[in-house]
Amino acid sequence: MAMKAKRVVGAALALAVLLSPLTAAANPDKMSKGEHRQLQDLTEKSGGTIQIRWDQKRGTPSFISGKLSKPLRGEPMEQAVKFMDTVKSLYHFDSAKKTFRLRKVQKDELGITHVRLAHLCNNIPVWGDELIVHIDKDGIVRSVNGEFTPDMGKNTERIQKPTLNSDQAIQKALDEVKPKQLDGKPTAGLFYFPYPEPDVVTLVYVVTIRDMSAPAEWKVFVDAVSGDVVHKYNNLKFKQKR
């Protein structure tokens, strides 16, 4: 019988979640001592029970829930960074302070603070990656969820600087989608783009082009080194489908 991706883990079964066949990281034979130790620490902090779901492609947790920390002091970003440093082996990064940038802090009517963290590598954001740390009114982390691509430092050693500038990337994108009626000036931002697999990383400009005639809001991914268009989609259609 296939094992479920989401599991409730008891203290005596702290590593049972690692038996999930969904990812390499979920295989106990392939996990490091640090990963084993951090998962066990989380389980003990939570009084013997946590919930965890693994990202099938990335091999990192997409969801962890329980009483995941002691009360943490400081501003929400400080609390989130302190917590993420306690699980860095599970997500495969070296330093939370260098790896994350605050994207947004929200507090709901129940007093839960939701800290949205952007993933950085070489001080460049990783497209599509975001972790949300949920902290209760006592400063205890209750859950973390989102997408995080591991080992970005290793996969970006040779692509740390663009050869194109943003204006050149915008022109490449305009040539690609050929808008008939621009709605405002196109914009471009520099990102690492792990696509089509997490370990295949390209340094890209993500160019946003709004075309009133379509209508369309194009996201065009231009390789910041070669100038090739590696991906594109109409974000307006995507928004309408959701």
Automatic annotation (TrEMBL):
- What keywords is this UniProt entry annotated with? Hydrolase, Metal-binding, Metalloprotease, Protease, Signal, Zinc
Q: Which GO terms describe its biological process?
A: proteolysis
Keyword Zinc carried by entry: yes
Any GO MF annotation of the entry: metal ion binding
Q: Where is the signal peptide?
A: 1-26
Where is each PepSY domain found? 164-230
**Any Pfam family:** PepSY
* Domain (FTP) ranges: 99-148
Q: Which domain of life is it from?
A: Bacteria
Instruction: Name it.
Output: PepSY domain-containing protein
Taxonomy of origin reads: Bacteria, Bacillati, Bacillota, Bacilli, Bacillales
